[in-house]
Structures are given as C-alpha cells and as structure tokens.
Design a protein that fits this description.
By secondary structure, the chain is α+β, with helices and mostly antiparallel strands. The protein is built from 19 helices and eleven strands. Helix 1 runs antiparallel to helix 8.
C-alpha cells in the first residue's frame, strides 16, 4: 500500500514538474529574443522582437490545427502521426500536458532560424516559413524520434532535441541565410566580384545579449530535465547540463584569447549556448567526463563554425545560429554514440531487439553510433529538402528579402512603422557601412607625452586659434571616448569644474581601430568621440590647452583636437550677471 502511495505521489510531482519544465522552455523565447536583438543593430530591434513573439503565436495556431497530431497522433507506418482534431472533438480525454510541452519545443525550432536571417528578411515571408516549420517540418521528423516513428523503433536516442530541434533549426538557418544573401556591406568585393574582405557588424547591445544567454541557460534546465521520471535522473541531467556549457565557455575564452589577443565576449556567449545544444541529446545518458569532453569540443566548434561561415562559405549569420545550433546539434547527436553509459541513472537505450547498447568509449562498439548517424542523416536530409522548397516557393510568391533602401533604413521603420525601439534614447550605429580602411601611418613614434617633441605633441592633439583676443574663451576639446575620465580629472585639477559634455562621432586620417569582433577586424565609418566644452576667464587658456594635451596624448594622430573661440558675451540667467562675473560661482 505504501509503495502505491509513493508511486502515486511521485507521478503527481513529476507531472507538475513536466509542466513547470514546459513553462521554462516557453521562457526561453525571451532569451532568444534578447540574444538576437543584442547581437544585431538597433534599427532592427523591434522587428526582431516581433518575430520572436510571432514564432510562438503562429506556431500555436498551426500546432493546434495539424502539428500536434502529426507528431503524437496514431503512428502510420513509422512516418507520421495520424492527423486529427482531438483537441476539439475529445477535449475531456485530451493529453493537455503533452500538447503544451511539445508546443514550446516546436516554437524553439522555428525561432532558431530568425537569428541567421536577421536584418534583411521580409516580415510576411518570415511568418510564412515559421508557420511551415511548426506545422510540417518539425512535427514529422519529431514523430520519427519521439512519436513512436521508425527512428525510435530502431533505438535512435535524442533525449531533449540536439537533433530534432537544434540541428533542424540550424540547417534551416544555414539554407535560409544562403538563399537570402548577406547584409549590405558584410563582404567587400573586388571588380571581378571576388570577396576580398569580411567586415564586422558589432551587436548594438551586448548586455541584453548576455541577459538572453542567462535566460536560455536557466530555461535549459527545463528543456533537458522536464522529461525526467526520477529524482536521480533529474539530478544527473542538471549536472551534465551545467558542466557542458561551462566547459565550452572556458575553452572558447582561452581559444579566442590566444588567437585574437583578447577573450571575445560575444563568442563566449555563443559558446555557452553551444555547450547547452551539444549536451541536449546525451544529457540523460552521459556522465561528468563525457559532459566535459562534449563541452570542450562544443567550445571549439562554435569558433570554427563562425569562422567557416564568414571566410569560407561567405554566409552572413549575424548571431552565430548556424555555429551554435547546426554544428553543435550534429555534434550532440553523434556524442550519444560515443559517451552513452549505463552508469547514468534511468539509462534505457536499447536496439530494435531490446538489447541495451552503450557508447563507443564505454565498450558498446559502433552499434549505437551507427544508429545515431542514420538518425542524423535522415533528419538532416528531410530538413534540407523541405526547407529549401519552402524558401524557394516563398521567394517566388512573396519575395524573401526587403529592398536595399529598406535594409539601410532599418526594418523597424520600414516593416513596422516604428521610428525606434529605443524611444527617448540616443542610439549611435557605429557598425561598418562604408568599409573604410585603417590608416597604418598614424603612429608618431613616441607614446609618452613628456618625451614627445613639441611638433609631435602638436600633431597628435592640434590646437586651432590658441590665443583669442578677448579675456573670455570657449575651449572645445574633441577626444577619444576612452580618454574622457582622464580629461575630466585633468580639468578638475586645473580648477575647471563647469563643462558641457556631448558624445559625438567622427574620424580623421586614423579611420578605424583594428580591433576584432568574433574574429573579424572592425573598420568603422565614424569613431565614437567625446566633445568637452569649457568657458574660462580666470584660468589661462594656455593652461587648459596644456592640461588637455597631456591628458589625451598617446603618440598617435587622432588623439584629439582643441578649438579655442573668443566669447563676446556671457549672461547668467538667474542673476543677470554678465561676462566675467557671470562665470563666477560666488554671489
């Protein structure tokens, strides 16, 4: 009797956890929205948020109509579920929990594609192909794996979706980005049309992108753990789901630090997601050692994937969706065949004869790896064929890409009539649109101000009209944004406490910084600068100029410029005082 009670309570608890897991997976939509928005340009933020919202909403509609029955309906020859409308005709006996759980997974598959095709896809066309993925492409292949289809009958294993969700979304993203073409200015070409250079488009809001990654990581505990049926299995899945992304991120950090000279922030964020994708299929059947290896490979694979798409395939993927989801979805699927071990709690992989099989590195031979390869190849082929047909039909009927003018203006304004997703904020787009080259001849040979000759000092921070005729002068200093704090302290030490500060954009012969973003050197049309304006009377102008030069000097042309203007009249509004008296802060 006590055993029956325990079993009943356990089933109820895990039934509730199943739905909590589904809610966590739904919350991942917010994570995808934040990652995609943060890794792209501000002028397209509203469009990206709208697409991630409609992924789920359109997916829900088509999943009700056909997707759910194709996935979990009565099996027809191992290929599809029997279409039906049980949600309408037999609601009292309907499997509500499974519907919600599989719906949120379905929406995840569709949203992966959005990132790779961001910033140049027609919104109408996006809605159409998102619906096709949720209605047909995902439910049919997921039926093969989870609905009692032919892959499940063989013994193919994908616990939470490295293959069924991430690889499918990643392949769709790869094909879509290829058919769509790169964003304007992503690749520089010579007269013959040969690509000569890859240009970086830095994401406009990495804090939002980072928040998205943490949201996704949290949601992944539901993604991987919701289907667990015991506390031991759930605990093991949480462990593997933690180890793999952590290792992937550390490996990526070390790799980019060595290769590019500095640890790449956005690439490490991608690596966290890559580790999560890779561990999704084997999370319930591997151990800590397997998770470490899976994560380490994922951390390197995401770096390779971003580089390979940029420099070899010349496919523009703004957020790294292909590297994260396609390559690591494949890797996670095959990793089951290498690292599956019966020491994992609740281990249940068996072949068609019901015999337990393990991974290659745990003495199981190649049998499980063969099954995983068959599953990967068949699902990849199904996805590639169906999504290619979908994109080509959409392109023929609606058109797939916005016009060049719409892309340059931004999809927020042209597709949604939204002037900006950041109303009330001043957003500067410093991404590469004109492909200006770095001038290598800006160094003056001396980095320290005290050692520089007067000629070098004047070349680095030139002064225009240093000696005005009147007793009151306005000094305008244009400097590098990074030097603002140093300049402010220098002015305060001199006794200048009142200043007007404006963030501006500009460049001279220095044109570009040579830094790297995701392994691609960044050239920018305009560099972020700060303009500091001070009006002085009692403090000698020469002292202000000298202090500014000393604060700004680094030994390169482009350190800054100083402009001095005579001031004819100053009036303090509050007291009516004028000229010299108006500049004094005493009554």
């Amino acid at each position: 009797m006590s055993g029956e009670i325990t079993s009943f309570v356990s089933s109820q608890v895990f039934g509730v956890w199943f739905l909590i897991g589904a809610a966590l997976v739904f919350w991942m939509q917010a994570g995808f929205a934040m990652v995609e928005a943060g890794f792209t340009r501000a002028k397209n933020t509203g469009n990206i948020l709208m697409k991630n919202l409609m992924d789920f909403c359109i997916g829900t509609v088509v999943f009700i109509l056909i997707g759910f029955s194709l996935l979990l309906g009565e099996d027809l020859m191992g290929l599809i579920g029997k279409p039906g409308f049980d949600i309408f005709t037999s609601y009292a006996d309907f499997d509500w929990s499974n519907f919600v759980f599989n719906l949120v997974f379905c929406a995840t598959t569709a949203t992966i594609v959005s990132g790779a095709m961001a910033e140049r896809t027609k919104f109408l066309s996006y809605c159409v192909y998102s619906g096709v993925i949720s209605a047909l492409i995902y439910p049919i292949e997921a039926h093969w794996i989870w609905g009692g289809g032919w892959l499940a009958q063989m013994g193919f294993h994908d616990f939470a979706g490295s293959c069924a969700i991430h690889m499918v979304g990643g392949i769709s993203a790869l094909i879509g980005a290829k058919i769509l073409g790169p964003r304007i200015g992503k690749f520089s070409k010579d007269k013959s049309g040969r690509i000569t250079k890859v240009n970086a488009f830095p994401g406009h809001n990495l804090p939002i992108g980072c928040l998205g990654v943490f949201i996704l990581w949290l949601g992944w505990y539901g993604f991987n753990g919701a289907a667990c049926t015991s506390v031991e299995q759930l605990g093991s899945v949480f462990v593997t789901t933690t180890i793999a992304p952590a290792i992937a991120t550390v490996v990526c950090m070390v790799f980019t630090w060595i290769k590019y000279g500095k640890p790449d922030v956005s690439m490490c964020l991608n690596a966290s997601l890559a580790g999560l994708v890779a561990i999704t299929a084997p999370c319930d059947v591997t151990d800590a050692f397997g998770s470490i290896v899976i994560g380490a490979v994922a951390g390197l694979l995401v770096c390779f994937g971003v580089w390979f798409l940029d420099y070899k395939l010349h496919i523009d993927d703004p957020v790294g969706a292909v590297a994260v989801h396609c390559l690591n979805g494949i890797w996670g699927t095959l990793a089951v065949g290498l690292f599956a071990t019966s020491t994992a709690p609740g281990y249940s992989i068996a072949n068609a004869q019901g015999e337990m099989i393990e991974g290659l590195f745990y003495g199981g031979g190649f049998e499980l790896m063969k099954l995983q390869l068959i599953g990967f190849a068949s699902v990849a082929a199904w996805t590639a064929v169906t999504i290619t047909i979908t994109f080509l039909v959409i392109r023929a009927i609606f058109g797939l890409r916005v016009t060049e003018e719409e892309e340059i203006i931004g999809l927020d304004a042209t597709e949604h009539g939204l002037p900006s997703a950041y109303a009330g904020f001043s957003i500067m787009d410093i991404s590469n649109t004109m492909n200006m080259d770095v001038n290598e001849n800006t160094s003056l040979g001396v980095d320290e101000y005290e050692l520089a000759s007067p000629a070098r000092r004047a070349a680095a921070v030139p002064t225009v009209q240093p000696f005005p005729a009147t007793g009151i002068s306005k000094v305008v200093i244009i400097a590098k944004l990074a030097k603002y704090d140093t300049l402010k302290k220098a002015m305060n030490n001199l006794g200048v406490t009142g200043m007007t500060v404006t963030q501006v954009m500009g460049c001279g012969v220095q044109k570009g910084a040579g830094d790297k973003y995701r392994g691609v050197e960044m050239d920018v049309t305009l560099l972020p600068k700060v303009k500091v304006e001070v009006v002085v009377s009692g403090i000698p102008v020469e002292s202000v100029i000298e202090a500014a030069k000393k604060a700004l000097y680094t030994g390169h042309i482009g350190d800054g410029k100083i402009f001095v203007y005579p001031v004819e009249k100053v009036v303090k509004i509050r007291t009516g005082e004028e000229d010299f008296d108006a500049l004094q802060d005493v009554e």
